[in-house]
Task: structure prediction
Amino acid sequence: MQGAACGVEGTGMKGMELARRYYEEYGAPMIARDFAQECGKIACGLVGEGSECFGFDDELSRDHDFGAGFCIWLADEDAKDFGSELDEAYRRLPGEFMGYPQKETAVAGSKRTGVMRIHDFYQRFTGRRALPETIDDWRRIPEAFLATATNGCVFSDGAGVFSAMRTGYLAYYPEDLRLKKICARAAAMAQAGQYNYPRMLRRGDKAAALLALSEYVKAACSMAYLLNRKYMPFYKWAARGLLNMDKLPELHGMLGALCGEETPPGQRTEHIEQIAAYVIEELATQSMTDHEDGFLLTHCGCISQRIGDEQLRQMHHMAE
Result:
């Protein structure tokens, strides 16, 4: 399951574990007691916005929007039949749990906990009430929203409707689109890091060099997510998410060394090439290239050849 590990890390209570315990101690008994006839139609968990849904929350995360709470998802007809009563029952749950307040159901106009319709939840992040059917459907959905819609944990789902949508999205992009995105990231890494960064340094344009470095890091992060078949979250969590990767497990540390304040600008070019070689090795492992050239752009042809959709294959390397 993509997203949080549903546990306690370190010495602090993680938001996902807090949500699960609140649900198990108060939410599940309330549903079993007051909605015995409907409990098989109710899905509960914590998925969506907030660092706790990704499992990335820490001490700093508790200075805002942190508390005990969980999501309750209903099909449209069930929401009409008993959604209001269930929402009122949820709001009557204890306002404090394990020293934390009950989490606000809505933050900045966005509902994050409490009762919500299944299709409304997915439409909010994907713009769709049903799973994407075509490559164009997938391309229209921002990747960070896909990450948000599929993170976290489902605690219970009697009807399985919410989980069916979740499973469909977690199945990941169609393979042709994944390959096209990988090709685009390879081209971006080559252009921004291997080519433009050292040129900007030689020109003495520090601002342009930093912009090129930023584009390289962004493309490298995206490449890792694509090679791991995971959606990349909002930029501030993109690098943090690399710590949970099976493929390219050393990339987080390599990017840290690349961007470290103690790393001289000239030495960064060496780190850039090391990262490129690391990525090329994984591309070969996944049978996407058989070239040995160290310049990532030269591998785009091999990757493109593996794309079955002719229109997608003919698009420029930098496009996706």
Remarks:
- The longest helix spans residues 175-203.
